[in-house]
Amino acid sequence: MTNLEKYNDSFISSLQVTESQLDGLKYQSVEGWDSVGHMGLIATLEDSFDIMLDTDDIIDFSSYARGKEILKKYDVIF
Amino acid sequence: MMSSFNLLDGKVALITGCNRGIGKEIARTFVLNGAIVYANARRVGSLNILIEELPIHLRPSIIPTYFDVNDTNLVRQVFVQIHKEQQHLDCLVNNAGIMKDALIGMVTKKLMLELFETNVFAVMDLMQYAVKLMSKQKSGSIINISSIAGTNGHAKQIAYSATKGAVVSITKTAAKELAEKNIRVNAIAPGIIETELLSEINSHTMENLKLNIGMGRLGTTNDVANLALFLASDLSEYITGQTIGVDGAVLM
Question: Known catalytic residue: B160?
Answer without folding.
Answer: yes
